[in-house]
Structure formats: structure tokens, C-alpha cells
Amino acid sequence: MTRRGHGRAARFCRKLLQARDGAAAVEFAIVALPFFFMLFAILEVAVIFILNSLLENGTIETGRLVRTGQASAQGMTATQFRANLCSRMSVFADECATRATVDVRVIPQFNVNPPDPLSGPTFDESGLTYTNGSPGNLMLVRVWYRHPLLTTFLSQGLSRLDDGTAVLTATTAFRNEPAGAGQPAPAPAPAPTP
Fold first, then answer.
1. How far apart are CA 64 and CA 57, in angstroms?
2. Could you tell me which residues come within 8 angstroms of residue 173 by beta carbon, excluding any fewer than 6 positions away?
3. What are the C-alpha distances in Å from 71 to residues 5, 37, 80?
4. Does the pTM of the predicted model rise above 0.90?
């Protein structure tokens, strides 16, 4: 290459490196995909945290109906229990009936291992049951909520099933209150007069 050709190539490279027209657009194009992916992932994790909080609170509050004997007095079934739970799920109440699964059972002691419906690649409801129990029974209330994930990367990390859904679990255990616990205490007998 001649000196003259070498000088032209050098000038062209310098101009190319100094040119800033469209640099912001190119930089944004490079950064945009990861940025929006992270933004959607953060929003989806936020939705899961809100959903988990609502599920925990709903399970505790609906479990209280079993604990106080109100569920037994009403003859509550698993479907009615789930409907009551779903009424406490705020913005997720519409799809709760099809996504929530309940298991309410009497347990002999607090350190039991009830059947786990998530032990395989699919959700197995065959070992789940519903009973309101009797006064004084130890009770275990478990609720599972299947929430579809939109972000592919999150579904790989959060999904325990083959269908790409996150399964949130809420559990509470308690002893049913004695019969008549919701009634006011009787007035004490008057003290004998001397």
C-alpha cells in the first residue's frame, strides 16, 4: 500500500471512531433487550410476592373459621373453604377458584409428614382431604396456588412442575378451640356472705 493509500485509510478510521451520529440509538439497542427483560422479571417477582402475602393471610384467616368451630357449625366443605379463601385474595380472587387447592386435615401431632402433592413432576391431589375436625383436634391447613409465569427465565427457576407455573404454598397449624370457646364466659358465682 502506498503512503497515500495508508493515509486515507487512517483518516477514514479516525473519522469513523470520532463520529457520534446514532451512537445513542445503537447503545440503547444493545442495552434495551436485557433492560426490558430485567424490568419484566422484577415486576413478575413483585406480583409473586404480593400473591404470596395474600395467600398466607387468606389461609390464616380462613383457617380461623376451622379453629373457632365456625366451619363445623356451617358444615363447610372444601369447595366452600376455597370460596371463602378466594374472597380474601383481593385482585387474584377471580382466578383463585381454578388455581387454588386446599388440604385441611386432623394431625396426631405437630411433627407429621402429610402427603406432598408436589413430590412428582405433576401436581397430585389424590392424597389431599378436607375435614373440619372436632374441638381440641390438632389441625393442619395447607393451600397451594398455581400461578403461571410469563418470564421464561423465571419459569425455569421458580417452577416445580413441568407446565411452567409457580406453585405457592401457605400452611398453618393449630389446635381447634374447645366447644363453646366463642361464647362469653359465665358470670362468676356470688361470694357467700358471712
1. 11
2. 107, 110, 138, 139, 140, 141
3. 91, 45, 9
4. no
User: For each of the chain's 194 residues, which pLDDT tens digit applies?
Assistant: 555 556 777 777 676 566 666 777 777 788 888 888 889 889 988 999 999 999 999 999 999 999 999 999 999 999 999 999 999 998 899 999 999 999 999 999 888 889 888 887 788 888 999 999 999 999 999 999 998 888 777 766 776 677 778 889 999 999 999 865 444 444 455 555 65
Alpha-carbon torsion angle 116, 120, 126, 128, nearest 10: 20
Exposed e or buried b per residue across 1-22, where buried means at least 16 C-beta atoms within 10 angstroms of its C-beta: eeeeeeeeeeeeeeeeeeeeee
Select from 176, 184, 183, 185 the least CA-distant residue to 72: 176
